[in-house]
Amino acid sequence: MKLLKSLFIAAFAVLALTSCSDDDDKKQETGTTKTYLYVDATSYTDWTYFSFDKENVVEVTKPEDDLSWDIAFHRGDIRLNGGESGKGKGAAQNMNTTKWNEVTEAPTSGYVTDKVGKITTAFTGDGITEGDASFSQTLAGWLTIDTSNPPPVYTYHDWIYVIKTAAGKYVKIQITDYKNAKNAGAYISFKYQYNASGATSFE
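Structure (tokenized):
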């Protein structure tokens, strides 16, 4: 009887250790690197919202109360679901490198949430009209547009950022282009690695 009891305890211990190991492995799962092409951000009045869980654009009517979106685009502006833009945990950090493989771990601190600032709300023959809106002033550094002499000159800075989603999960992202295949502006492309498991590693 004692022998059977000992064998039962040993088997239970092995099962528990295996279960814990499986849970640890699941927690450490990292996402694959993907590219999303040509988010239509051409509107001067509306934002286009994107979900990393759904890997696609989502329809949002009240972005400040909606947790279904993670990142949004308006021309060259970007906002995250956090801070002044939403009730999520969205925030960003510039990793100060343009080399994708150099960023292997999400930082534990240093993230900046969205704040209100000036964005372009119209661009006509009469010039540029600006208005107040919330956006990520950290991610604003991905692109510089010089409109001092037509045509505009676009400079991509290729920074790698780590952002938090609405749920607080980590994404490594690089915004790569402002134009589509037909050279039309305000179509945003980006490369990203989304850790749906909540893992902090990008290796």
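The CA atoms of residues 146 and 153 lie 5 Å apart. The mean pLDDT is 90.
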